Predict the 3D structure of the following.
Amino acid sequence: QVLSLPIVVIVHGNQDNNAKATVLWDNAFSEIDRVPFVVAERVPWEKMCDTLNLKFMAEVQTTKGLLKEHYFFLAQKIFNDHSASLEDFQSRSVSWAQFNKEILPGRGFTFWQWFDGVLDLTKRCLKSYWSDRLIIGFISKQYVCKLLSTEPDGTFLLRFSDSEIGGVTIAHVIRNKDGSSQVENIQPFSAKDLSIRSLGDRIRDLGQLRNLYPNTPKDQAFGSHYNSEWVGAE
């Protein structure tokens, strides 16, 4: 006899996401000598951070893992708490319900469903951009406004969409004639969108984008990701 890794049997493809969540939780947090099928209902947030990071790096096949500021955003999201500090979250524990049972406030999906969408999008379309650290990704819309509001016109950054599963959006600052500024978020791009035209080429197309935050000219940041335009169609 030998114990296998966790197995979940599903009867339809729409159960795949929940099955992956079950396997991930069981694989990461069960004790080796446990009673069969018994897994902790709550785990320390720090252990969850390690698990999400290992999963992200393995799935995307990148050596660039999640950073401290990414964990802070993810903690705010899963705990629905924007007032706690980074240190406050380190002493908390996260439940299975918060991970993949409770719907995120104002959304139609769970934390895991959202995170898994980010994994899939990054793996399929954004691996090289992420590995080059061109995507901040895990950052709130509110914090983006704080970062960009004092920057020159045309400064932009890339973040994963909060409202859609598997979307990346570009936030950029527009400086008005009176000196005031506003931050606009371009409609998120899905994996389907990016399979039609790559992220690099979309950024090149958008004339209002000038410098990747904080101050790297976009052609310098994304030039190696531009595709040669195909010419000759008649």
User: Anything to note?
Assistant: The chain has one domain: 13-225.
